[in-house]
């Protein structure tokens, strides 16, 4: 009859960097011990392993149930927050109908400006794309010239569009 020391699988949760060590210390609950013994103890060991696996699966299921509960709470929180913002926006539009209309017109005007700006931007990219690919200075100049303006313009358009959106969705 051959006897050997039980092996404990110790591994990281990410990747395949699992290692085995001869250790009798208690392993974390999600790991199991592998007992390498002679065939005489096989049936008893198999029953013990099946029980351990069943318990491990129950623990995994309980953890998954808790994760689902947390996700439901998060979704409810986000939905409540979104609904509150929508109500506040609707109240603002109701209190400032003329300004809301002006915001909508301004967003439309800036959208046309944005289209022209994007045309100039794409023309420059098409003309100097190769230099940008190989020259860091040209690329930095391009980003410095168009990046902040485009980001700010997009932000202003987004705010104006939201404040000027029609109240049909509310």
Description:
With 170 residues, the chain is mainly alpha-helical. Helix content is 71%, strand content 5%. It is built from three helices and three strands. A three-stranded antiparallel beta sheet has the order 2-1-3, with no helix packed on it. A hairpin with an 8-residue loop joins strand 1 (7-10) and strand 2 (19-21).
Mean pLDDT: 80
Structural class: mainly alpha
**Basic shape:** flat
Strand content: 5-15%
Distance between the termini: 78 Å
Number of strands: 3
Q: Biggest sheet: strands side by side, in what order?
A: 2-1-3
For the largest beta-sheet, the strand count, sense and barrel status come to: 3 strands, antiparallel
Low-confidence stretches: 1-24
Radius of gyration from the alpha-carbon trace, in angstroms: 32 Å
The SSE order reads EEEHHH
Q: What is the strand and helix layout of this fold?
A:
Layout: E1 7-10, E2 19-21, E3 33-34, H1 42-95, H2 97-134, H3 136-164
Antiparallel strand pairs: 1-2, 1-3
Helix pairs in contact: 2-3
Give a brief outline of the structure.
By secondary structure, the protein is mainly alpha-helical. The chain contains three helices and three strands, in the order βββααα. It is flat, with a radius of gyration of 32 Å.
Features:
mainly alpha, disordered N terminus, 71% helix, 170 residues, flat, three-stranded antiparallel β-sheet, 3 helices
